[in-house]
């Protein structure tokens, strides 16, 4: 996801440095802020904010290792999976919300699906990164259809 010479459409390093700084400063608040904001798309106009999802995200985050969380930011932002994806021959369904503020679709899913020899990209207009939790009826139907195919 990091903007590099190879992937100029990625996000600037400052975005990920900001995540690391927020995590270091107040890990508990970081997990509340991410869930209450961009992860589930709760910042959009008319968003159906779920306190339960926000608290569950916080609970899961606080159960994990602070060091692992910090290192994970580097792993998900700086690891180039190009060769790995090109070597996958099984059918793969890539699901992505078109209003994903956490992981922009242009810097991730569109690239990943294009690298898969047998990949299918399914996008969801207006949905966020946490679409599996906010719209399980929609996502689960698409997963079942893919598995049955």
Counting H and I runs of at least 4 residues, what is the number of helices?
8
Low-confidence stretches: none
Global shape: globular
Q: How many domains is the backbone divided into?
A: 2
The helix/strand series, from N terminus to C terminus, equals HHHHHEHEHH
What is the distance, rounded to the nearest whole angstrom, between the alpha carbons of the first and last residues? Answer: 31 Å
**Fraction of residues in helix:** 40-55%
Radius of gyration from CA coordinates:
16 Å
Strand % is 5-15%
The pLDDT mean sits at: 94
Largest sheet, in brief, is: 2 strands, parallel
Structural class: mainly alpha
Protein name: Serine aminopeptidase S33 domain-containing protein
Organism: Aureimonas glaciei
Pfam families: Hydrolase_4
Chain-wise SSE layout:
Blueprint lengths: L12 H13 L1 H13 L11 H13 L2 H13 L3 H5 L5 E6 L11 H7 L3 E6 L6 H4 L1 H13 L1
Parallel strand pairs: 1-2
Structure description:
The protein is mainly α and 149 residues long. It folds into 2 domains: 1-80, no CATH class; 81-149, 3-Layer(aba) Sandwich (Rossmann fold), CATH 3.40.50. Helix content is 54%, strand content 8%. The chain has helices spanning 13-25, 27-39, 51-63, 66-78, 82-86, 109-115, 131-134, 136-148, and strands spanning 92-97, 119-124. Strands 1-2 form a two-stranded parallel sheet. Strand 1 (92-97), helix 6 and strand 2 form a beta-alpha-beta unit. The model has no long low-confidence stretch (mean pLDDT 94).
Short description:
By secondary structure, the protein is mainly alpha-helical.
């Amino acid at each position: 996801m990091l903007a590099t010479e190879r992937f100029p459409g990625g996000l600037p390093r400052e975005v990920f440095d900001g995540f690391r700084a927020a995590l270091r400063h107040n890990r508990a608040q970081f997990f509340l802020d991410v869930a209450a904001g961009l992860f589930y798309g709760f910042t959009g106009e008319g968003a159906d904010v779920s306190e339960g999802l926000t608290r569950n995200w916080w609970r899961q985050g606080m159960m994990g290792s602070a060091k692992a969380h910090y290192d994970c930011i580097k792993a998900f932002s700086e690891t180039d999976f190009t060769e790995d994806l090109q070597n996958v021959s099984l059918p793969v369904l890539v699901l992505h919300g078109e209003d994903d503020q956490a992981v922009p679709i242009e810097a991730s899913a569109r690239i990943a699906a294009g690298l898969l020899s047998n990949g299918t990209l399914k996008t969801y207009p207006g949905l966020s990164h946490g679409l599996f939790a906010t719209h399980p009826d929609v996502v689960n139907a698409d997963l079942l259809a893919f598995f049955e195919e």
